Amino acid sequence: MWGPEGLDEAEAGLLGPPGELRGRDVLEIGAGAAQCARWLAGRGARPVALDISHRQLQHALRIGGTFPLVCADAAALPFADGSFDLACSAYGALPFVADPRLVLREVRRVLRPGGRLVFSVTHPIRWAFPDEPGPEGLSVSASYFDRTPYVEQDEEGRAVYVEHHRTLGDRVRDVVASGFRLVDLVEPEWPAWNTSEWGGWSPLRGRLIPGTAVFVCERD
Question: Rounded to 10 degrees, what is the CA torsion of 14, 207, 30, 38?
């Protein structure tokens, strides 16, 4: 799944036709518990799940899988040039780094010529609205152009969670400046079957404003 709307890779085929994934080397960036890598392995791909969080990868290990788990920084990938055919990231890594070009350039380096990167992030327009699922989440409360990061702190004032805002234009420029060609920008619509409400995600908001942006990029 590329986001809370429920866009399924099996249906969307953003990484390519599902039937052609067999034997492909795929890097999942910001893998968390490696759900995407597990799905890829089930289609015959050879995934590697990478995350900076050791605890997340421990959870992935408990769930199980035959693919490698790598604890590393996405801006300093521990792989040789041209190691992968594909790379993917569903809400992983890119929103949490101040300079996403560091990550994108590293991903380009480890992709083979013609390799594809697909990543999803919260749609930038959501930053202008309160993170509420009801009607209160439909009124603009902040400037879309304010790039101040969202920071949560513990009792001692230490940052425990940081997420960075990039406008849609920023994201496109990041992709191009990092040596990729932008093939598609997918803004999934909220489907009628999805009645889930979670955090600021809901059918009410999802049918009116986009919640996820999926960037499909290729290394020429």
Answer: -60
Residue 89 pLDDT: 98
Burial of 103 (0-12, 13-18, 19+ CB in 10 A): buried
DSSP 10: H
Cα–Cα distance measured from residue 131 to residue 90, given in angstroms and rounded to the nearest whole number: 19
Domains parsed from the chain with CATH numbers: 19-124+166-218 (3.40.50.150)
Q: Name the band, by pLDDT with cuts 50, 70 and 90, for residue 180.
A: very high
213 — alpha (psi -120 to 50), left (phi > 0) or beta? beta
Does the structure show a pLDDT above 90 at 220? no
Query: Which residue in this structure is represented by tokens 């380096």?
Result: 109
Region 66-83 average pLDDT: 97
Length of the chain: 220
Q: Is 168 left (phi over 0), alpha (psi -120 to 50) or beta?
A: alpha
Give the pLDDT score at 60: 95
- How would you class 186 by CB atoms within 10 Å of its CB: exposed for 0-12, middle for 13-18, buried for 19 or more? middle
φ and ψ of 152, to 5 deg: -110, 140
**Contact, 216 vs 90, CB < 8 A?**
no
Cα 120 to Cα 126, 182, 215: the distances in Å are 14, 13, 6
